[in-house]
Amino acid sequence: MNAKPDTTSWHERARELAIRAQAFIGGRYLDAASGATFDCINPATGARLARVAAGDQEDINRAVEAARAAFRKGSWAGLKPAKRKAVLRRFAQLIFEHGDELALLETLDMGKPISDSLQVDIPAAARCIEWYAEAVDKVYDEIAPTGPGALALITREPVGVVGAIVPWNFPLLMAAWKIGPVLAAGNSLVLKPSEKSPLTAIRVAQLASEAGIPDGVLNVVPGLGHTAGKALALHMDVDCIAFTGSTATGRSIMQYAGQSNLKRVWLECGGKSPNIVLADYPDLDKAATAAAFAIFFNQGEVCSAGSRLLVQESVKDAVLEKVQAIGRTLQPGDPLDPRTRLGAIVDDIQMKRVLGYIDAGRRDGAQLCLGGRRVREESGGYFVEPTVFDAVQPRMTIAREEIFGPVLSTITFKTVEEAVEIANDVIYGLVAAVWTRDVTTAHRVARALRAGTVYINCYDADDITVPFGGFKQSGIGRDKSLHALDKYTELKTTWLDLS
To answer: Is 181 within 8 Å of 484 (Cβ atoms)?
Structure first.
């Protein structure tokens, strides 16, 4: 999966690409029961890519019924762990083998650079499935220390039918973070991809079937959030709902669970992550480079983006100058050009949201240092320049609300204590970072920061072995690592009286 040497080849492949646009239920592709569709738009051009099946209540019912039938039959849940492992490994391998096709779908659908789709998203999704495949037969059950008069077995069992609703910013990777542990644990799954970027999920369902995952175990229902997503969260025969997306939608998901069958709810929601640079850090160029990519990577459409840059006042000018210099080199370009580092915003709605926040920053008195405009309008696509604000006050809207675009808010502080107070003074707590040469300060600040992940002298370091999730309104539960299996299993105690 290596980027092709020129733009033309990717455009030619895009013209030849066959796009699947139906739901995948019970092992086969189906139109929506109503026959309805919605337009899937290429954010780089504004042109329609496909008319996608618009699933609704009836399609969710069909998918849940197929998932429940497969679960009861035991065609997947009843397999020996080693056999589930072999099938999931084959599934991962097929994702690797179809990497170019999936990367092209991802870029056309979501607007990210083809180099990122090829080198980051698709390989990471395949490795996620592969890692959980290897975990299947390596998680042991327990025997409780009850004493000689009893034998108490503690076993993990699959929760049953899992519904998963995933976002548009990393379409296949976020789906893989659900698919991997859900299927490894033996569950059946109904996946609702975002209507803004459903194409890779639809395609990968067929690869799962080819790998040997039984019919009904993995179902994909594209559709709108307020119809298909709501129906899935309210469904009385779904045992667990897992969601990645905005905090506002996560709040609704919790309400739907309570209104229905009190299904388990796992949420990975938004962030407004602080990236704290202390004056004692010796390599300000490194810190500034990391700060730039922490907000501009993936067009800033990242829940863990370092959208608040907190810089100690004595080094603020030096750090900010470097961040701006990098931003100037990251001007948006054609996502199908392998040289492009910054692609398109996912759609017109999101672009207008980002531009609206930029206007709010200006109105509130923040100093616009870089960018702030829509560009490449002649393409018909949705592109926003890397944007940097200085003189941002912690109470400003751009310092408190998640923008989900390439917009950086720079906040100056004097003391470490002040930096921690500012960092924690938002509703979110997904990730944070601190840059310092003092190991004591690093640990002290890391403990004080209310965030699920704290990076020290780096940003956005990643490995499938570590959990990901947040404090406060950034969510509930953890994706990745063995801890994700806790979300999709039940613990059962079996007590045998030996007296």
So the answer is: yes
Alpha-carbon distance of 428 to 258, in angstroms, equals 23
Q: What is the pLDDT of residues 381-396, one digit of tens each?
A: 999 999 999 999 999 9
Query: How far apart are the C-alpha atoms of 57 and 195, rounded to whole Å?
Result: 15
CA separation, residue 370 to residues 6, 329, 403 (Å): 30, 12, 16
**How far is 192 from 163, CA to CA, in rounded Å?**
8
Q: What is the DSSP string of 153-170?
A: EEEEEE-SEEEEE--SSS
- What's the pTM value of the predicted model, to 2 decimals? 0.96
Which amino acid appears at position 183 of this protein? L
Q: Which of 40, 240, 269, 303 is catalytic?
A: 303
The beta-strand segments (E) located in 245-294 are 264-268, 274-277
User: Which tokens sit at 208?
Assistant: 């799962």
User: What digits encode the pLDDT tens for the residues 40-73?
Assistant: 999 999 999 999 999 999 999 999 999 999 999 9
| C-alpha span between 370 and 111 (Å, rounded) | 22
| Strands of 366-488, DSSP E | 367-370, 374-375, 383-384, 387-390, 407-413, 428-429, 431-435, 453-456, 471-472, 475-476
Per the residue annotation, which of 130, 268, 301, 402 is the catalytic one? 268
Establish whether 268 is a catalytic residue: yes
Q: Please state whether beta strands 367-370 and 387-390 pair in parallel, antiparallel, or not at all (unpaired).
A: antiparallel
Residue 44, both tokens:
């780089």
**Could you tell me which of 107, 67, 426 has the C-alpha nearest to residue 241?**
67
Is 40 tagged catalytic? no
